[in-house]
Specification:
The protein has 21 helices and no strands. With about 475 residues, it is an all-alpha fold. GO terms for molecular function: sugar transmembrane transporter activity.
Length: about 475
C-alpha cells in the first residue's frame, strides 16, 4: 500500500512538472504552423549555423573513415605484418570495443567540458590512433591504434548529433541532423574507394584530414547555446545563440524557451538504470534496445568491415564491387533522409528488413553453389546482387531509422540513461558481429548468411508487433501512447 501511495505521489509530481512543458510544446507547434518565433526564411539563418554543422559533421565523416578502414586493407595488412586470421579479427573488431567505451563516457564528458570539448578529445584520440596504425610493426601497436580510433568514434556517435540538434533552428533541425548519417556513409564509402588504390599505411594518414579540419574549425564556431544555458553562462549563451541566428535576428523568444525548458528538465527526477525496468517505461526501452539489437545482429558490421573479402571469396573483383557498394550506400542514404518524414518510419523499416532478408539469402545461395561446385558461372553475379541489395536495403531504413525512433520514444526524464543503454547494446552488437564474422565464414560461408537472414526475418516480426509509427506526432503524444 505504501508503495502504491508513493508511486501515486511521484506520478502527480511528474504530471505537475510535465504539464507546463507539454503546453510549451503545443505553443511551439502552433508557432511553427503560423510561421512565428525564430525567423524561418532563408534570410533569417546565419551562415554560421551551416558552417558549424559542416565542422561538426567532419566528426561524422571521421566516424565513417574509421569504420571503413579494415575492409580494403585486410589482405595487405595480413601479408605485411604476417597476421593470423584471429589477429586480424581482433584488429577489425577492437574498433567497436573502443567505441563502446567512448559511447559510455561521451555523455559525462560532453556535459562536463561541453560539446566542443568532447569533440576535441575525440579528435585527439583519433589522431593518436591513426599515427599508431601508420607506424605499426606488429599486432599490438596496430590494435592500440584501432582501439584509440574506436574510442574517438564512440564519442562522435553521441556528441555530433546532439550538438547539431542543439544549434539548429527548429525548422532546419531534421535536415541538418540527417547530414550526420549521410557523412558517416560518405566516410565509409571514400575509405572503400581510395583503399583500392592506396597502401594501408597511406590510407591511415588520410584519416587525419577530417581530424585537422574539425580541430581547427572548432576555434571558429560557437559552443552549444543549450549547454551554456545549462551551465548558467548567460552572456556566453546569448552571444552563441545570436551568432548562430545572425546578428540582426530577434532571439528573445527562443532564448526564453531554451531557459524555461532547461529549468523544467532540472526539476524532473534523475533516472537510474533500474528505473528503466519499471512497467511504465518497459515498452519504450524494449523498442529502443530491440531495434539496436536487430540493426547490428543482422550482420551489417561483419559485411561492412570485410566486404572486399566477401567479393573475393565469391570470385568477383573486390575493387569494382567495393566501389559500387560505396556509391550505392551514399545514394540510398541520401534518398532515405529525404523521404523519412513523408512515408513514415515503419514502412521504411519493413522495406529495409525485407530487403536484408533477400540480400542475405541470395548471398548465402551463391556461397552454397560455390561450395558444392554448382552453377559456378552465376556465383559472382548472385553474390554481388545479394551484397548490393543488402547494403541498399540497410541504408534505406535499418541504418538511420532506429536512431530516429530512439530519439522520439524515451520520456525526457529517462532519455539519457535509456539512450546510453540502447547505444551500448548497439556497440556491443557491432563488436560481436565484426569479431565473429571471419570465424563464422570459416565455419560455413553460406550458413553465416542464412543465420543473418533469420535474424532479419525476426526483425520484421518485431517491427510489426512492437514498433509504433511516430511520423507527424509530437514527442509527448508518442511517449504517452507508448508508456501509458
Amino acid at each position: 500500500m505504501a508503495i502504491k501511495e508513493e508511486d501515486a505521489e511521484n506520478n502527480v509530481r511528474d504530471q505537475k512538472i510535465r504539464e507546463p512543458l507539454m503546453r510549451q510544446v503545443e505553443n511551439n507547434l502552433g508557432d511553427e504552423e503560423e510561421g512565428s518565433g525564430v525567423q524561418t526564411g532563408s534570410k533569417g539563418h546565419s551562415w554560421m549555423v551551416y558552417f558549424t554543422t559542416f565542422v561538426a559533421v567532419c566528426g561524422s565523416y571521421e566516424f565513417g573513415s574509421c569504420a571503413g578502414y579494415s575492409s580494403p586493407t585486410q589482405t595487405a595488412i595480413r601479408e605485411d605484418l604476417s597476421l593470423s586470421l584471429a589477429e586480424y579479427s581482433v584488429f577489425g573488431s577492437i574498433l567497436t570495443f573502443g567505441a563502446m567505451i567512448g559511447a559510455i563516457t561521451s555523455g559525462p564528458i560532453a556535459d562536463f567540458i561541453g560539446r566542443k570539448g568532447a569533440m576535441r578529445v575525440s579528435t585527439l584520440f583519433c589522431v593518436a590512433g591513426w599515427l599508431a596504425i601508420y607506424f605499426a610493426k606488429g599486432a599490438l601497436p596496430l590494435d592500440i591504434g584501432r582501439l584509440a580510433t574506436g574510442y574517438g568514434m564512440g564519442v562522435y556517435s553521441y556528441v555530433v548529433p546532439v550538438f547539431i540538434a542543439e544549434i539548429a533552428p527548429k525548422n532546419l533541425r531534421g535536415a541538418l541532423t540527417a547530414v550526420n548519417q549521410l557523412m558517416i556513409c560518405c566516410g565509409v564509402s571514400v575509405a572503400f574507394i581510395i583503399g583500392t588504390v592506396l597502401t594501408w599505411r597511406v590510407l591511415a594518414l588520410t584519416g587525419l584530414i577530417p581530424c585537422a579540419i574539425l580541430f581547427l574549425g572548432l576555434f571558429f564556431i560557437p559552443e552549444s547555446p543549450r549547454w551554456l544555458a545549462k551551465k548558467r553562462k548567460e552572456k556566453e549563451f546569448e552571444a552563441a545563440l545570436q551568432k548562430l541566428r545572425s546578428k540582426d535576428a530577434d532571439i528573445s523568444q527562443e532564448a526564453t524557451e531554451i531557459q524555461d525548458y532547461i529549468e523544467t528538465l532540472e526539476r524532473l527526477p534523475k533516472a537510474k538504470v533500474l528505473d528503466l525496468f519499471q512497467r511504465r517505461y518497459l515498452r519504450s526501452v524494449t523498442i529502443g534496445v530491440g531495434l539496436m539489437f536487430f540493426q547490428q545482429f543482422g550482420g551489417i558490421n561483419g559485411i561492412c568491415f570485410y566486404v572486399s573479402n566477401i567479393f573475393e571469396s565469391a570470385g568477383f573483383s573486390s575493387s569494382i564491387g567495393t566501389i559500387v557498394y560505396a556509391i550505392l550506400q551514399v545514394v540510398v542514404t541520401g534518398l532515405a533522409t529525404i523521404v523519412i518524414d513523408r512515408v513514415g518510419r515503419k514502412p521504411l523499416l519493413f522495406v529495409s528488413a525485407t530487403g536484408l532478408v533477400l540480400g542475405c539469402l541470395l548471398t548465402g545461395i551463391s556461397f552454397y553453389l560455390k561450395v558444392h561446385e554448382l552453377a559456378l558461372k552465376v556465383v559472382p553475379a548472385l553474390a554481388v546482387t545479394g551484397i548490393l541489395l543488402y547494403i541498399g536495403s540497410f541504408s534505406a531504413g535499418m541504418g538511420a531509422v532506429p536512431w530516429v525512433i530512439m530519439s522520439e520514444i524515451f520520456p525526457i526524464n529517462i532519455k539519457g540513461v535509456a539512450g546510453s543503454l540502447a547505444t551500448l547494446v548497439n556497440w556491443f552488437g557491432a563488436w560481436a558481429v565484426s569479431y565473429t564474422f571471419n570465424f563464422l565464414m570459416t565455419w560455413s560461408s553460406y550458413g553465416t548468411f542464412i543465420l543473418y537472414a533469420a535474424i532479419n526475418a525476426l526483425a520484421i516480426l518485431f517491427v510489426a508487433v512492437m514498433v509504433p509509427e511516430t511520423k507527424g506526432r509530437a514527442l509527448e503524444q508518442i511517449q504517452a501512447a507508448i508508456n501509458g
